[in-house]
Amino acid sequence: xxxxxxxxxxxxxxxxxxxxxxxxxxxxxxxxxxxxxxxxxxxxxxxxxxxxxxxxxxxxxxxxxxxxxxxxxxxxxxxxxxxxxxxxxxxxxxxxxxxxxxxxxxxxxxxxxxxxxxxxxxxxxxxxxxxxxxxxxxxxxxxxxxxxxxxxxxxxxxxxxxxxxxxxxxxxxxxxxxxxxxxxxxxxxxxxxxxxxxxxxxxxxxxxx
Length: 209
Hints:
- The protein has helices at residues 3-14, 47-64, 79-89, 130-141, 158-166, 177-186, 192-203, and strands spanning 18-20, 26-27, 33-34, 36-38, 70-74, 93-96, 109-110, 118-126, 145-154, 171-176.
- By secondary structure, the chain is an alpha/beta fold.
- It has a single domain, classed as Rossmann fold (3-Layer(aba) Sandwich), CATH 3.40.50.
- The two termini are 30 Å apart.
């Protein structure tokens, strides 16, 4: 665990971008019941947090993907983060829709993307990995060379990790679920007895009641 992981996890908790509730679980769009809900869009409303996130994502691009010449954001949550990274690096920006536009040109990738562009994808949240990797696939079909992805937060599910490996997509995240619940315990957001419940949920989120 590095310092950035701990700081960003703590800030997500402080601004209520992450909510933890073992008694009244949240229901995700997938139908899963979960003791945690993460909404990283809230970070955009806090200048100091927003700046730390885009600067940290920028650092990843510079250190791990320094040949990237285009920054791509996944709609809609990562568009703003991606634009800020692109601005910091003075790189072109595109974004990827979840589905093709239903009118006009029917685009799924919006913006100017020359064939062969070396692209780094910015994402706000990795859960199952399905929508994130769909964006990677869309960029590849558009002729891009996707170098990898940098995201704000990941739940760290094993099946998600395997999906990224199968898709040959390198993933780096600023923080993650384990770091977050450890910071939640250290800061008093949860009690010691809650830790086992939260760890068990991550192992089998589709079976949790």
